[in-house]
Amino acid sequence: MNRPITPPDHALIDAATLIAAPPEGPFNAASPAIFQTSLFTFDAYSDLEDVFAGRSRQFIYSRGDNPTVMEFERLIASLEGAEAARAFSSGTGAIAATLMAFLEAGDRIVAVEHLYSDAYRICEKLLKKFGVAVDYVDGSDTEAVKAALPGAKLLYLESPTSLVFELQDVPALAAEARRLGVLTVMDNSWATPLHQKPLAHGVDLVIHAASKYLGGHSDTVGGVVAGAENLIARVNGGAFPYLGAKLSPFEAWLLLRGMRTLPLRIARHMQSGLDLAERLRAHSDVATVRHPAFSAHRGRETLTGFGGLFAFEVTDEIDVPRFVDALGHVRIGVSWGGPESLVMPALAPLQMAEVNSLRRFGVSPRAIRFSVGLENPDVIWSDVEQALGRARR
Ligand SMILES: *Cc1c(COP(=O)(O)O)cnc(C)c1O
Fold first, then answer.
1. The domain that contains 376 carries what CATH number?
2. Which CATH number goes with the domain that contains 205?
3. pLDDT tens digits for the chain (393 residues)?
4. Whose CA is nearest to atom 6 of ligand 1?
5. Which run of H or E residues covers position 382?
6. Is residue 266 in some structural domain?
């Protein structure tokens, strides 16, 4: 199950190729085709028989494979250096299907404690119900994670985490997991494959919320998991067709369209994010800025660049709801990765029963998550600055 990844035949797509890459399709069209169809017909009875007997392959039904979706899967596999990928109708669908494909009653998994909130709820509400035990461990404490691994079936990483932006020593943890026969799964939504390639650091399966930077336009929800052929075959055979969380051809097309500008967008998100993070760090109303650029923790070296999502904690002088309401340009919203700048007070999306446990996990009620968009950073900054001024007690 844990055999090392062999590089795919097709070379890794680099940032420049991604922008210029011509889609494969008829008529030399500059934009890829959408195969907006639920089913594909057979020419003859014998074709039908051959396909179902596994003697030949053709597209059958779009809850399984669809050419437009497959094009997106191929692109992600290329970017991550994976042999194969499987797309889903959401990042959460990809996480749920991956966990269900590899786990069974009686298994135990180890997850980093500040994982994405709905990944946490999959663990709490689904895995536990089906008899899978979950240990949450401080992901920044490499020795503690290693100590929890013996006997576990799966290690779930997210580096950096997307609420408090803690880094994990991915190569060390993946190596220890591999030594013990534990499958490592990692959420790489924040860095995108352009700024972090987990499979190259020993991770077995990498997951993306394509809804965020990959799509990049706040117009679609999608997800994907990528890894070795045999592992994706397990996802395909054990969960994907039966959970029914397939990506639609149109949404795959939106993702392909969005990804043609991913290198340009991510460079701007990174630059503006660093700029805003620096300005916030120098501001007297800000107590802490949680951005991986300011961390010296192991895990920094696997990032070759940054995303534009980070968090800052305001001092007691600032009334958090008043600050958020005083913003004019920057909007309030849960997602991230689109062209528009967004803030999200960190505690607001957590269900009340979870607040106490997550506070124990280190999320401060004074924390604000900031998705820095593609606007002129001076415009974003003057809005943040005036809102801080108006929110002072
Ligand atoms: C949004 C998000 C997800 C889930 O993706 P959806 O497409 O919303 O289901 C997973 N991981 C991270 C880090 C996210 O931000």
1. 3.90.1150.10
2. 3.40.640.10
3. 333 333 333 446 777 777 766 666 788 888 888 999 999 999 999 999 999 999 999 999 999 999 999 999 999 999 999 999 999 999 999 999 999 999 999 999 999 998 998 999 999 999 999 999 999 999 999 999 999 999 999 999 999 999 889 999 999 999 999 999 999 999 999 999 999 999 999 999 999 999 999 999 999 999 999 999 999 999 999 999 999 999 999 999 999 999 999 999 999 999 999 999 999 999 999 999 999 999 999 989 999 999 999 999 999 999 999 999 999 999 999 999 999 999 998 766 555 556 666 565 567 889 999 999 999 999 999 999 999 999 998
4. 91
5. helix 377-391
6. yes
Atom of ligand 1 nearest to the CA of 212: 1
Ligand 1 pocket check for 223: Cβ under 6 Å: yes
* Direct distance between the N- and C-terminal alpha carbons of the chain, in angstroms, rounded to an integer: 57
Ligand 1, atom 2: closest residue by C-alpha: 209
Mutational test site, ligand 1, from 89, 92, 114, max ligand atoms within 8 Å of CB: 92
Q: Which ligand 1 atom sits closest to the C-alpha of 119?
A: 10
Pocket test for ligand 1, best of 76, 98, 116 (most atoms within 8 A of CB): 116
Q: What angle do CA 336, 200, 271 make, to 5 degrees?
A: 35
Q: Are residues 255 and 270 in the same domain?
A: no
Parallel, antiparallel or unpaired: strands 367-371 and 342-345: antiparallel
Q: How many domains does the chain have?
A: 2
Question: Are 83 and 95 within one domain?
Answer: yes
Query: By residue range, what is the domain housing residue 231?
Result: 9-259
Residues 36 and 105 both lie in one domain: yes
Please indicate, yes or no, whether residues 318 and 335 belong to a single structural domain of this protein.
yes
Instruction: Examine residue 2 and state whether it is found in any structural domain, yes or no.
Output: no
The closest of 218, 258, 220, 372 to 306, measured between CA atoms, is 372
Q: Tell me if 91 CB under 6 Å of ligand 1.
A: yes
User: Does pTM top 0.90 for this prediction?
Assistant: yes
For residue 161, the CA-to-ligand 1 centroid distance in Å is 11
Does the bond joining 171 to the residue before it have cis omega, within 30 degrees of 0?
A: no
326 shares a domain with 181: no
132 Cα: distance to centroid of ligand 1 (angstroms): 22
Q: What is the dihedral of CA 17, 162, 334, 246, to 10 degrees?
A: 60
Q: Which helix (H) or strand (E) holds 368?
A: strand 367-371
Domain match, 362 and 221 both: no
